[in-house]
UniProtKB/TrEMBL annotation:
InterPro entries: Isoprenoid_synthase_dom_sf, Polyprenyl_synt, Polyprenyl_synt_CS. The keyword Transit peptide does not apply. It comes from Osmundaria fimbriata (Red alga). GO terms for molecular function: metal ion binding; prenyltransferase activity. GO terms for biological process: isoprenoid biosynthetic process; quinone biosynthetic process. It comes from the Eukaryota. This is Prenyl transferase. It holds the Pfam family polyprenyl_synt.
Length: 324
């Protein structure tokens, strides 16, 4: 378990320990190379934010604080899907490190990495089907479609300085927010709550996921390679134009030339980062993240305030506090 989980999720520490243990069992494969590739992904650690959200939601609607086997399995499925998307992302973006360790394709090959990601998606689908809840299956399955659509949208708009904030938000939903939204909704479905409550938590997860992605994109500009676990400016280098850059372009049109030339010079990334930092781009991106965070939090505070909601509020505030 990560230091993050220990500090932030004391109330669900036992559940998270069990999830970490189960994840390794769930990705076992007969072929040693495929198993080694899958294990490499989970050995990299991670904050386990997505499964934690599922577990906390389950507790919010539990009278005895117990988390069902189905909710624990949903939490594990959520993390497997997330991890599968990361390995595919790393291949597409040609990232050499993830969370400070070598990526799967860097250790093995692109082919093995893609197969490992496919294997994880397949495993998640099998375990999802075994929940024997058709509505949950439909909800979570949509996430995998959204991942693919998000990657296509990102690829089409690569190095496109005409991309709008709305385009960026839509892409961010597909790539990040969809999983948090759908898993939050599915957690409510497993509690047999009404459609209104399901939709509320879907909306909560959507806005939380958008805030999460915006903050990640800010950190790509402002963070150090050591803290990020990958080189700073990776998104820019790969042509993924994010909120800080989009806002900065409004003030500094000279950024267009550097982006249009796809950062051809060795120092172009550093130049672009320096220019972005000289504008209001980062602050505007922070404001955008805060806006989505508040939309998420308002749903919790206005409708579902009880003693168990504070853990969910805590993880929600953590999302933006990473850049403070």
């Amino acid at each position: 378990m990560t230091t993050f989980s220990n500090k932030l999720f004391k109330s669900i520490s036992n559940e998270l320990k069990q999830i970490n243990s189960n994840l390794h069992t769930m990705v076992e494969a007969k072929h040693p190379v495929l198993y080694a590739a899958a294990k490499q992904l989970f050995n990299a650690g991670g904050k386990r934010i997505r499964p934690a959200i599922v577990i906390i939601i389950a507790k919010i609607f539990s009278k005895n604080q117990e988390v069902s086997t189905e909710h624990k399995r949903l939490a594990e499925i959520t993390e497997i899907i997330h991890t599968a998307s990361l390995v595919h992302d790393d291949v597409i973006d040609n990232c050499e490190t993830r969370r400070g360790i070598n990526t799967v394709h860097n250790i093995f090959s692109n082919k093995i990495a893609v197969l490992a990601g496919d294997f994880l998606f397949a495993q998640s689908s099998w375990y999802l089907a075994n929940l024997n809840n058709l509505e949950v299956v439909k909800t979570i399955s949509k996430v995998i479609t959204d991942f693919a659509e998000g990657e296509v949208k990102q690829g089409i708009s690569s190095f496109d300085t005409q991309i709008t904030i709305q385009d960026y938000i839509e892409k961010s939903f597909y790539k990040t927010a969809s999983l948090i939204a759908c898993s939050s909704k599915a957690a409510i479905m497993l509690k047999n709550c009404c459609t209104k409550t399901q939709n509320d938590f879907y909306t909560y997860g959507k806005h939380l996921g958008l805030a999460f992605q915006i903050v990640d994109d800010i950190l790509d500009i402002t963070g150090s390679s050591m803290k990020l676990g990958k080189p700073a400016g990776s998104d820019l280098k790969n042509g993924n134009l994010t909120a800080p850059l989009i806002f900065a372009l409004e003030e500094r049109p000279d950024l267009n030339k550097i982006v249009n030339e796809e950062f051809k010079s060795t120092n172009d990334i550093n130049t672009a980062i320096r220019i972005i930092k000289s504008t209001n781009g980062i602050q505007k991106a922070k404001d955008l993240a805060e806006e989505h965070l508040q939309l998420a939090i308002n749903i919790l505070v206005n409708k579902y305030l009880n003693e168990n909601i504070y853990d969910l509020l805590l993880v929600s505030y953590y999302i933006t506090n990473r850049i403070n």
